[in-house]
């Protein structure tokens, strides 16, 4: 309510070194708390739904500003908490934000984690399917961590797989990590998904990922998340 939140943007780069899209990441107050600390608090105190709605509206507003400036507008991915699906009427919130700012749905992407399937997965799959039908790409975040990720791949409608940073960290020194990434890329291909490598920090990692055929990379090597 006191507008103590801010959205920062981190670019995702394609194989030719151009910006493919951005990820919106939330910041709070003086930034002494990381979202890894305040998001779980918001989730457990009933505040995740209004905060998530704020992020969606703020991103939609920003997209409309870029459009108004006649810039080449790239899609922006928004992280979505499972609470927003189960308690927040995500679909309605997204439609409302797009309408308010007269935006094409293809400018918005939704990032989820497999935790979204913990409760009533049929409901979540329908919601995500409806968003996707509108033209919003769905990205599966932190892929490779957590439980039974592989079984979810064939169940959730997904367009993009984001390989977790923990795999990228080991890619240059560790043959096993490299093999794992190659396998994830093959899975993504088989399901016609694109692949994003997260947390890319060095040139060696970029080169290795490019040679493995990873479409898109994101990380401090190119840019930290920045305020506009
Ligand atoms: P995430 O969605 O996996 O986001 C990636 C995190 O990695 C971000 O941390 C980003 O700043 C950081 N990162 C990006 N590139 C690099 C890199 O090269 N090296 C390192 N060490 N880190 C990198 P951040 O912004 O602190 O966000 C942490 C988590 O908080 C996010 O992880 C996401 O789960 C959650 N989060 C952030 N904003 C939102 C939001 O608006 N809604 C929801 N539901 N969750 C959010
Ligand atoms: Ca994310
Ligand atoms: Ca992630």
Order of helices and strands: EEHHEHHEHEHEHHEHE
Largest sheet, strands/sense/barrel:
8 strands, mixed, barrel
Computed over alpha carbons, the radius of gyration is: 17 Å
Q: Could you report the average pLDDT, rounded to the nearest whole number?
A: 93
By DSSP, the count of extended strands is: 8
Shape: globular
- Order of strands across the widest beta sheet? 1-2-3-4-5-6-7-8
Cα distance spanning the termini: 21 Å
Helical run tally: 9
Bound molecules: ligand C2E, calcium ion
Q: Classify the beta-strand content into a percent band.
A: 15-25%
- Poorly predicted parts: none
Structure classification: alpha/beta
- The residue fraction in helices comes out at 40-55%
Structure description:
There is one protein chain. With 228 residues, this protein is of the alpha/beta class. Helices cover 43% and strands 20% of the residues. The protein has helices at 35-44, 48-68, 82-86, 90-100, 121-134, 149-153, 165-169, 175-190, 203-212, and strands at residues 5-14, 19-28, 76-79, 108-112, 137-143, 160-163, 194-197, 216-217. The chain has an eight-stranded mixed beta barrel. Helix 5 links the parallel strand 4 and strand 5. Helix 2 (48-68) runs parallel beside helix 4 (90-100). 33% of the residues are buried. The model has no long low-confidence stretch (mean pLDDT 93). One calcium ion is lined by residues 141-142, 162, 198.
């Amino acid at each position: 309510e006191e507008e103590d939140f801010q959205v920062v943007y981190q670019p995702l780069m394609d194989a030719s070194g151009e910006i493919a899209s951005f990820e919106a990441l939330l910041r709070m107050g003086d930034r002494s708390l990381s979202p890894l600390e305040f998001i779980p608090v918001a989730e457990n105190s009933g505040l995740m739904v209004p905060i998530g709605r704020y992020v969606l509206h703020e991103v939609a507003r920003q997209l409309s500003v870029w459009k108004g400036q006649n810039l080449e507008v790239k899609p922006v991915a928004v992280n979505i908490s499972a609470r927003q699906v189960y308690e927040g009427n995500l679909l309605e919130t997204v439609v409302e934000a797009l309408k308010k700012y007269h935006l094409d749905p293809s400018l918005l992407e939704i990032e989820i984690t497999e935790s979204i399937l913990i409760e009533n997965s049929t409901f979540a799959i329908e919601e995500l399917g409806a968003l996707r039908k509108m033209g919003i790409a769905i990205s599966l975040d932190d892929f490779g961590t957590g439980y039974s990720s592989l079984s979810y791949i064939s169940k959730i409608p997904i367009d993009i797989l984001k390989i977790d940073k923990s795999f990228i960290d080991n890619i240059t020194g560790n043959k096993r990590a490299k093999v794992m990434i190659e396998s994830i890329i093959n899975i993504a291909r088989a399901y016609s998904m694109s692949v994003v490598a997260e947390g890319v920090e060095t040139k060696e990692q970029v080169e290795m990922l490019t040679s493995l055929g990873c479409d898109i990379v994101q990380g401090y090597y190119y840019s930290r998340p920045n305020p506009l």
